[in-house]
Amino acid sequence: MKSRKKDKKLIWFGRAAGIFYTLFLMLFSLDAFQEGGNFLTQLGGFLLHSVPSLLLFAILFLTWNSPLRTGFLLLTFGLGFIAFSIFSHRQSQLEIAYLLPQLLVFLPALVIGVIFIYAVWHKTRVN
Fold it and tell me: How far is CA 31 from the centre of its chain?
């Protein structure tokens, strides 16, 4: 009985962490609204900067009832964006000063994905 409550708490913790993480990423999109410039241009910049957050919202809500899929998709999301940030820059620019912020931004997606996978693994192991 306790293990089922623990599994549900882990899954809900992962969902809440995913939502808060997505909202945190959305805050970075607000830098598109700066003084000067056309509102439509700023709105377009905001939407472009919001693509990672919108992808996370889609992952979370489309796989809401399947924590295992959510976990694997979040792992794929985090690893994909880390790989994208590494391969989108020239090798001469890859320094720890560049990679560390990228890791800090996308590492929570990996951790949340692992939480979902662990919750499902624990649920199947106990039952």
Answer: 19
